[in-house]
Amino acid sequence: MELIDGKKISLEIKAEIAIEVENIKKAGGKVPHLAAILVGHDGGSETYVANKVKSCEEVGFKSSLIRFEDNVTEKELLAKVHELNNDNDIDGFIVQLPLPKQINEQAVIEAIDSSKDVDGFHPVNVGRTVIGLPSFISATPFGIIELLKRYKIEISGKHCVVLGRSNIVGRPISILLSQKGSYGDATVTVLHSRSKNLEQICASADIIIAALGQPEFVKANMVKQGAVVIDVGTTRVKSELTKSGFKLTGDVKFDEVAPKCSFITPVPGGVGPMTIVSLLRNTLLAAKKEIYK
């Protein structure tokens, strides 16, 4: 069993991005600029956005953080999105989700200029991804593919089971794995809450992508010997062993599943670090105008 070290790979990619940014600066080019809109004071969102700002600094990007309180109106938020769409200094921006209940999240996502949508959530980018055109791929699926590439894990012809069908992870990763190409050509099965014979189908998989948000859902009996397991889950559960009283737990029961795997991601330290670094890669692509030429 080999542990897939997302933290190590993310540091390697950050170093590669930093070199490219330095070369852009030396050539007199524009430094990539990522902006983030944060609404409210959700703990998880605060931490995630703070990590994004820190990561921008590490690779030499400019970054901007725009804050709103929980009572912001949809009209006010959309006005700021429109402003960022028309700000030529900002190459890409994100609106941190979730948003308060008075705001229609989909309306906000669709208001973002698709050429600045570095989260990859806009329907134009999703559509381009589906038909294989250059696009901003949502960060977590982008990160998963990069992990598979860097660990030279064969995908072509393999049976991949994706647990979960969310628009952020499950659907896009299933599309990427099934597309033609060196890191596609898999036979993909998407399983969800209404799937029958879920355990048996899962046990036939060469590669499992677990993105359900249900702690320790995947048990040893659902994994065949030698399978590759990518755990996307990050649920906070109570723990007496940590100072905070909580710990991050994945969708896979790691201790009993890991011995059966050829490769497996830990939680934390697996897919998580790749999400932010994939956002940086999308921002660099946006700055270089490589997707929307």
Walk me through the topology.
Layout: E1 2-3, H1 6-26, E2 33-39, H2 43-59, E3 62-68, H3 74-85, E4 92-95, H4 105-111, H5 123-130, H6 139-150, E5 159-163, H7 170-178, E6 187-191, H8 198-202, E7 207-210, E8 227-231, E9 235-238, E10 246-249, H9 254-257, E11 261-264, H10 272-287
Parallel strand pairs: 1-11, 2-3, 2-4, 5-6, 5-7, 7-8, 8-11
Antiparallel strand pairs: 9-10
Helix pairs in contact: 1-10, 2-10, 6-7, 6-10
- What name goes with the CATH superfamily of the largest domain? NAD(P)-binding Rossmann-like Domain
Average per-residue pLDDT, rounded, comes to: 94
Biggest sheet, in brief?
6 strands, parallel
Could you name the ranges where pLDDT drops below 50 across 5 or more consecutive residues? Answer: none
Instruction: Label the structural class.
Output: alpha/beta
Strand content: 15-25%
Order of helices and strands: EHEHEHEHHHEHEHEEEEHEH
Distance between termini?
Answer: 43 Å
CATH topology (fold) name of the largest domain: Rossmann fold
Level-2 CATH architecture of the largest domain: 3-Layer(aba) Sandwich
CATH classification, class level of the largest domain: Alpha Beta
Strand order of the largest sheet: 1-11-8-7-5-6
| Shape designation | globular
Q: How helix-rich are the residues, as a percent range?
A: 25-40%
Q: What's the tally of helices?
A: 10
Entry summary:
The chain has 293 residues and is an alpha/beta fold. It has helices at 6-26, 43-59, 74-85, 105-111, 123-130, 139-150, 170-178, 198-202, 254-257, 272-287, and strands spanning 2-3, 33-39, 62-68, 92-95, 159-163, 187-191, 207-210, 227-231, 235-238, 246-249, 261-264.
